[in-house]
Amino acid sequence: MDGSPDTARKKWMDRAMPRREDPVLLRGQGRFVADLLPPGCVHLAFLRSAVAGVKITELDTSDARAMPGVLAVYTAHDLALHGAQAVNMLIPDAFTRPFDALATGRVDAVGQAVAAIIAESPEAAQDAVEAIVLEIDDAPAGAAPIPTARWAGGTPAPAALTVETVQDHALVAPMPLEPRACLAEPLGEGLRVWMSTQTPFRGRDDLSRMLGLPDSAVQVIAPDVGGAFGGKASIYPEDVMVAYAARDLGRPVKWVASRSDEFAAATQGRGARVSGSLSVDADGGLAALTVQLDWRLGHWTPYSAYAAPRNAGRILPGPYRVGAVRADLSVQPTPGAAVNIYRGAGRPEAAMLMERLVDKAAHKLGLDPLEIRRRNVVSPADLPGHSITGEWRDAGDYPALLDRLAQVTGYDDLRADQAARRKAGEVLGLGLSLYIEPCGQGWETAQITLTDAGRFLAHTGSSAQGQGRLTAWAQIVADALDVSPDLIDVAEGDTDDLPGGIGALASRSTAIGGSAMRLAAEKLRDQLSGALDQTSEPDWPADARHLPKSARTASATFTAPHEAWASGAALAQVAIDRDTGKVTVEQIAWVDDAGHVVNPMLVQGQLWGGLAQGLGCVLSERIVYDGDGQLLTGSLMDYAVPRATDMPRAVALHKLPTPSAANPLGAKGVGEAGCIAIPPAVLNALQDAVLPFTDADLPIPATPEALWRAINFPKETP
Ligand code: SMO
Q: Which residues of 510-549 are buried (b: 16+ CB within 10 A; e: fewer)?
């Protein structure tokens, strides 16, 4: 990036305009934060703690300050910050634990930043990190679980038996392809900050507050962002440090995380212990559900820390009718990285619990898993409507999802086939899941302008991280304006373009961001057609570009009256190698209700991506800390993300759309569906596969070792 910040920004904007005449997919025009280097830019490196649960007894930076190329060294004592980052208190009785930009007195997590070095090159900064003297003493911190919330409703019905399970979800890493990065440039009285984030406006609000600047003095731009999955939904200590140093030194400051930094210091997902008991009557009718959700939160609370536990609690009992529900939540600060939303955000935990409990009840009663679900699903006649705990739920047809799944898979034949292959010695399982998925609440903004050139420039307050969102929004705008999508340019990710916005998370981008786009487009269409001379047939939209500028821009904010709730059903067929425990996912069949679909190809991409991450959660991914808070899975050598060879042999995606009653598009969310649908279907299939050996609960993830033990040493399986 050459030239002044303004030239750089103009280049970025020019590049953001699609070049549709060029069909080549790899154009080398991606611009991520790591690709940007304004003149005079200096580089920031952190000294990160290698241990946790300690107090700092000595922190000597004098040698580091004297190293060649070093411009500044910061410790907590050198910082003067105002206030703390915001936390969305979705659980009102919960606690907040704001982060320290640099560790203050003690260290609670491996990877926590203790000092920051600014140098002329990234290498010089890193070299100087080695010259800092850090002495520590053991000071373990213990924090008890804090009971915070309860969701309850109904009256228990008479029951014949009760099944129970305890699910310890492994912590997992969101693992976007692009690690976090931040670049802050002094600009006038304030800052321009390039950040790899899902939520540029929240970044602006947090940074301006913590730096003591007005909102208007901080511009945040999220350029190309290479994935996020919830891991870039909150501002981080590193972002604040970068912005602070840029202000302090009056120079552009850049920091790019390594993969190791991300393992230790990016937010993680899941990690909760979910215990449940379900009583059923002799016909398999669900009588009562009691759940304990124990959520670990890591050492600081990101903005959406409470979104996941709240989702898990409030969506129980999932798509089923039950006599009574009671779910209690406790939250707990834990040594280790902060725990935040990760693709699915609490919905996977709720689905995993219900789907296992329902299967266990079916097994006890000698019912087929499909049959017990059919007997208990909420009727479409009751939707939209309120759940037993008072949640508004969108239109949907859960029985039809099950029927379609049974039909497209030839379910009865699959069961017969399984019996035959089992007789021949194979370890084979079939598993079902049925899920619901609330998809984001609140508002989003949009603004559309007809340019002098006769093209429409659409700004969204939402953002994009590689999902192809620009294409979907262009389609929505084109549809409302009745023009070709080729005439629409979409811009996102720059807080100077709109007064406010939220971003891309909670599967809300089409339902809420898209609805805002549609409202703005309808408004612009009415404005333009009202201003056009109607005496002759106008050439639309070409004639409209000659209208006064004021008539050529329209803005809208869409506030969703309700969340859109998606739903779906999935079937997994798995085979386990009895000598190695290796799992082959032979097929996934999946019927998804994402409501009105704007772009089927993008939806398919979301389903596939979520499926892959869902497989990771149930089969292989786990962050492990030892008893001292030491991170044992700090690299991709120790942390097993699924690879191409782990993908299912066959995947069949089917749609059964019921339009949402919560927005004018009728759209629901789909981005997180794979992480909700796939893990319970696969875990149920694995439990079904090992049933000839043991009915003990498998761990999450169910690794090859755990499966091998279940098959070969079933009595020793806990
Ligand atoms: S886990 Mo998402 O980015 O709401």
A: bbbbbbbbbbbbbbbbebbeeebeeeeeeeebeebeebee
Report the half-sphere exposure of 213 (CA within 13 A, side-chain side).
22
Ligand 1 center from residue 230 Cα (angstroms): 4
Cβ of 505 less than 6 Å from ligand 1: yes
Dist. CA 439 → ligand 1 center (Å) = 10
Q: Based on the domain organization, do 46 and 63 belong to the same domain?
A: yes
Q: Is the CB of 305 under 6 A from ligand 1?
A: no
* Cα separation, 259 vs 173, whole angstroms: 11
Q: Do 468 and 426 sit in the same domain of this protein?
A: no
Domain end call among 318, 343, 368: 343
Number of domains in the chain: 3
Please indicate, yes or no, whether residues 506 and 636 belong to a single structural domain of this protein: no
Ligand 1 atom at minimal distance to the Cα of residue 440: 4
622 pLDDT exceeds 80? yes
Q: Is the CB of 434 under 6 A from ligand 1?
A: no
Domain residue limits at 568:
377-437+564-716
CB of 506 sitting under 6 A from ligand 1 = yes
Q: Which of 343, 363, 387 is the last residue of a domain?
A: 343
Is residue 21 pLDDT above 70, yes or no? no
How far, rounded to the nearest angstrom, does the alpha carbon of residue 203 sit from its chain's CA centroid? 17
Mark whether 421 and 487 lie in a shared domain. no
Tens of pLDDT, residues 454-481: 999 999 999 999 999 999 999 999 999 9
CA within 13 Å, CB half, 160: 11
Note whether 584 and 593 are within 8 A (CB): no
Mean pLDDT score of the chain = 95
CA 343 – ligand 1 centroid, Å: 5
Pick from 20-29, 269-278, 432-441, 565-574: least confident = 20-29
pLDDT score at 558 = 98
pLDDT of residue 417: 97
Å from CA of 510 to ligand 1 middle: 14
Q: Are residues 589 and 491 in the same domain?
A: no
CA of 681 to the centre of ligand 1 (A): 21
Q: Are residues 662 and 540 in the same domain?
A: no
User: Does 393 sit in the ligand 1 pocket, CB within 6 Å?
Assistant: no
Helix (H, G, I), strand (E, B) or coil at 10: helix
Least Cα distance to 270 among 336, 356, 342, 330 occurs for 342
498-550 pLDDT tens trace: 999 999 999 999 999 999 999 999 999 999 999 997 778 889 999 999 999 99
Ligand 1 centroid distance, CA of 407 (Å): 32
Residue among 124, 119, 76 nearest 101 (CA): 76
Are 198 and 268 in contact, with CB atoms under 8 Å apart? Answer: no
Residue 624 CA to residue 687 CA, distance in Å, equals: 24
Asked whether 348 and 356 are in contact (CB, 8 A), the reply is: no
| Average pLDDT over every residue of 275-303 | 98
CATH number of residue 72's parent domain = 3.90.1170.50
| Alpha-carbon torsion angle 239, 240, 242, 248, nearest 10 | 170
Instruction: Report, in angstroms and rounded to the nearest whole number, the Rg of the chain calculated over CA atoms.
Output: 26
Same domain? For 586 and 548 the reply is: no
Tell me how crowded residue 587 is: count the other CB atoms within 10 A of its CB: 18
Q: Are residues 194 and 294 in the same domain?
A: yes
Phi-psi region of 592 (alpha: psi -120 to 50; beta: other; left: phi over 0): beta
- Rounded to 10 deg, the angle between the 411-423 and 398-409 helix axes is 50
Burial class (CB in 10 A: 0-12, 13-18, 19+), 69: middle
Q: Which atom of ligand 1 is found nearest the CA of 340?
A: 1
- DSSP letter string, 555-591: EEEEE-SS--EEEEEEEEEEEE-TTT--EEEEEEEEE
| Domain-embedded: residue 351 | no
Mean pLDDT of 633-649: 96
DSSP 15-49: HHS--TT---S--S----GGG---TT-EEEEEEE-
